[in-house]
Amino acid sequence: MIRNHVQHLHQLIDDRTLPVRGAITVTALLSLPLFGTGVRALGSALDLGQLVLPLLVLAHVPAAIALIAIWSIGCDVCRTGGSA
Questions:
Q1: How far is CA 78 from the centre of its chain?
Q2: Does the global pTM surpass 0.85?
Q3: 73-80 contacts: CB < 8 A, separation 24 or more?
């Protein structure tokens, strides 16, 4: 199931132009600290203790999206010899 989601994201990102993929990468990377801080704050406010860990894993989904976008950009650059 996770593989299907990753393949779907990869196809969606591959269909975008290079500047859009760059924007996806930057946005995803910038959102990482916000999600991490938000999850920790929520965990502290609700006194979740060890239950914060699964939420932190979910907070790192933007990192996976950024990696897929970077991979997609890299594949285009390699295919076109740098003139993408």
A1: 22
A2: no
A3: 73/18, 73/21, 73/22, 73/25, 76/18
Residue whose entry in the numeric block shows the structure tokens 């003139």: 83
At 26-58, the pLDDT tens digits run 999 999 999 989 998 999 999 988 888 888 888
* Residue 59 neighbours by CB distance under 10 Å: 21
Instruction: Please name the residue that has the structure tokens 């990869």.
Output: 10
Contact 71, 77 (CB under 8 A): no
The gap between the terminal CA atoms of the chain, to the nearest Å, is 32
**How far is 39 from 43, CA to CA, in rounded Å?**
6
What is the DSSP-derived secondary structure letter of residue 19?
A: H
Which residue in the block uniquely carries the two structure tokens 């969606």?
A: 12
